[in-house]
Specification:
Strand content: under 5%
Shape: globular
Number of strands: 0
Structural class: mainly alpha
Order of helices and strands: HHHHH
Radius of gyration: 12 Å
Amino acid sequence: GLLRNQGKYDEAKPLYERAIEIGEKTLGPNHPDLATWLNNLAGLLRNQGNYDEARPLYERALKIGDEALGPNHPDLAVWLNNLAG
C-alpha cells in the first residue's frame, strides 16, 4: 500500500484493520480476500519488527487460503514465503 511504502505505518495500520473488519462482516471470516488483507497487515507489522503480532495473522491467512483456495494455489505459496521471511 501507498502509506506502507512511504513508511507511514501508524497511518496504514488502522486502514488495514478497518479493511479486515469490513471484510469479516461482509464476506465472512473465511473469504480469500480476507486472507490477502491479513497478509498485508502482517507484512506491515513485520516491517515494524512486530514479529509476534505478525505471525498469527500470517497463520490465519494461510489457514483461510488453504481451506478456501486449496493447498496448491499460487497465493498460498506467496503467503508461505511471507511467513518464512
